[in-house]
Target: 2-isopropylmalate synthase
Amino acid sequence: MVATTADSAEKIIIFDTTLRDGEQVPGSQLNTLEKIEVAKALEELGVDVIEAGFPISSPGDFKSVVEISKVVSNPVISALTRAKEKDIDVAAEALKYAKKGRIHTGIGTSPYHIYSKFNSTPEQILERAVQMVKYARKYVDDVEFFAEDAGRSDNAFLAQVVEAVIAAGATVINLPDTTGYCTPYEYGEKIRYLKENVANVDRAVLSAHCHNDLGMATANALAGIMNGIRQVECTINGIGERAGNTSLEEIVMILKCRKDIPAYTDIDTTKILKTSRLVSNLMRMPVQANKAIVGRNAFAHSSGIHQDGVLKNRENYEIIDPADIGVTDSSIVLTARSGRAALDHHLRRLGYNLSHAELDVAYSKFLVVADAQKSVSDDDLRNLAGTEMVEDARRIKLDYLQVVCGKDAIPMATVRLLIDGEACVATASGNGPIDASINAVRQLITQKVTLEEFLIQAFTRGTDDVGKVHIQVANKGKVFYGFSANTDIITASVNAYIDAVSKVI
Ligand SMILES: CC(=O)SCCNC(=O)CCNC(=O)[C@H](O)C(C)(C)COP(=O)(O)OP(=O)(O)OC[C@H]1O[C@@H](n2cnc3c(N)ncnc32)[C@H](O)[C@@H]1OP(=O)(O)O
Ligand SMILES: CC(C)C(=O)C(=O)O
Ligand SMILES: [Mg+2]
Model:
């Protein structure tokens, strides 16, 4: 177990493998310039080790490791190899500009790998592991050994291999749950077993490299930490082979958030979101909306009860301060499930300080807009707070509107206006539904105006969007403007016309 007092908190080394295991995602390959951009962002984020690539795999990957080694100063640069001399020679060559270079070599230790991948025996695998660690040590002092599929390896054999490669000079021992098979209890027990059964185990740093096939990659890394792991191999956004790897942001924020776990990292968490977005964009891998820490909804509150609770005290519903990972936008999302507290919060943010009565009016209008759309934007709110409430105070109100239109139909509109509270009805035709509706209104409001401009615009989103109508009318040489917004553009047009003409009257 890790020690239990805050004073003795253990530093966990963050080994980022976004550019190696993360880059094994189909369709997410990066060119050298893109890899350099990610490597620089990882350095800024404060990772301790960057796994820059697998140099023997292609000339492009070789070049990337060379170029990253030239531009990155603080983190160790790690290059992956198989347990093969040629791989190690090429990795050493690629690392020649690295200020701190690490060769990461290894071989499978599970029965699957020993027998059906290598057609070998445990003795031969052990021998090869030792030879390759010694070979890598000829080039660098920092050699990490991976026991591939450690998760499904026999603990006694694994302990034998780990002990032998430490004796051969491995400075870091990576214990991958390559297939994401282990449960956290099992993985934790495996690490504890090695701590208790390997001679000189403390000469090397034990590293967790967990995959997410059963959704347990982060939990397994954490179980490892609780039992003696001091390095976690992880990726931004949890990307990686198949279901991905332990996600950097998750393991880092667990250690930051849970003060009862005596372990910490040197990551500048305020750069997490920025780095996540960069990797997502460059790798063309969208982050799922509900992804822990970096998903679009990770700090979004959309239901009234939660919003009210968060506004009273953020910690009622948030265990992480969004600012800690670099989130700056509001987390209170307005939807039809929001209440007055959330609406008032956003109206005040936009400079509208409404009385209780005004807020009630705005809230009922807000619910109509929110039901018609998926979410309510600042523009929608400005309309509600500005125009819609002015509409309420008008002498002339649109009370009913029916239009008939379509291909080969004669556009007809029936409107009922409340003029000083009195209902007046008219029907008219036109060359389209808007023209017919305005003609019907003109029968009821006889004020002479010239329509000088009529503009309909959608906001920025889809077909469920709000249409904005701007109207300009002239009367006796003076210009008057009308505006309205509605998901129904004909209603918006009639209201905008009434708005303009009401000003003339
Ligand atoms: C768990 C992981 O994520 S491991 C890293 C996975 N990443 C990659 O594989 C990407 C880079 N890989 C590549 O570019 C290529 O596979 C190369 C260059 C490494 C090898 O290419 P090829 O020579 O054509 O071999 P191929 O890919 O068909 O097969 C892999 C070979 O490596 C061997 N091998 C696999 N792992 C190891 C290991 N750790 N140590 C030694 N040999 C290994 C396999 O047994 C197989 O050899 P065999 O054909 O003699 O049985
Ligand atoms: C190469 C090793 C470290 C690996 O990625 C794995 O076992 O998952
Ligand atoms: Mg892996």
The chain is about 40% helix and 20% strand.
